[in-house]
Design goal:
The chain is mainly alpha-helical. The protein has one domain. 75% of the residues lie in helices and 0% in strands. The protein has 8 helices and no strands. Helix 1 runs antiparallel to helix 2, helix 1 packs across helix 8 and helix 2 crosses helix 8. The chain is globular and about 75 Å long. It starts with a helix and ends with a helix. 23% of the residues are buried. It binds zinc ion (ZN). The site of zinc ion has 6 residues, from helix 8.
Length: 170
């Protein structure tokens, strides 16, 4: 299986091509930037290897503790962390849970402190963002999934290559 460094190199090597192809397909620089942003974020710190002590995990710095329950819940390279679509969806739901918790705490604090500026409900804010620019949302999601898949595919290729070399040695 490729090292964290190799995964990073693959992400950086693929990035210009991802940008070029998305630009050719959408003719929209903003959407391409959203897709590339998602791809880069997913490749470097929101990818499948958050299920172990990895470079992706370490990049969360002070906030990396939030991924500890995720690591406990999923064994390394399980289909729930490395599988297509399901891996990204579960990570998004998981991170969404944490963000929801922080949002709720801020809302409670602002209410207790009787601040004049109250926090809007999280779902309302997300819905507003979605209605304002659904295309950008979709481009971001596609980028996140592509970043995760570039990881999972290189894992699979690395394992296949290793098995092939082992068989040839015998
Ligand atoms: Zn992996």
């Amino acid at each position: 299986m490729p090292s964290g460094r190799t995964h990073d190199q693959i992400t950086f090597l693929c990035l210009p091509w991802v940008g070029l192809v998305s630009l050719m397909l959408t003719f929209n620089l903003g959407l391409s930037l959203c897709l590339c942003g998602g791809f880069l974020f997913s490749g470097l710190m929101f990818g499948p290897d958050l299920d172990i002590y990895s470079k992706q995990y370490q990049r969360w710095g002070l906030f990396r503790f939030i991924w500890l329950p995720y690591q406990k819940a999923f064994s390394h390279r399980s289909w729930l962390s490395h599988g297509p679509v399901i891996g990204t969806v579960l990570r998004l739901l998981y991170l969404g849970g944490w963000l929801g918790l922080v949002w709720l705490m801020c809302a409670v604090i602002s209410q207790m402190a009787n601040l004049s500026h109250q926090m809007p409900p999280l779902m309302t804010t997300l819905e507003q963002l979605w209605t304002q620019s659904p295309d950008a949302y979709l481009a971001l999601l596609v980028g996140l999934e592509m970043g995760a898949m570039s990881h999972s595919i290189s894992d699979a290729v690395g394992s296949g290559r290793k098995a092939f070399l082992k068989r040839r040695k015998r």
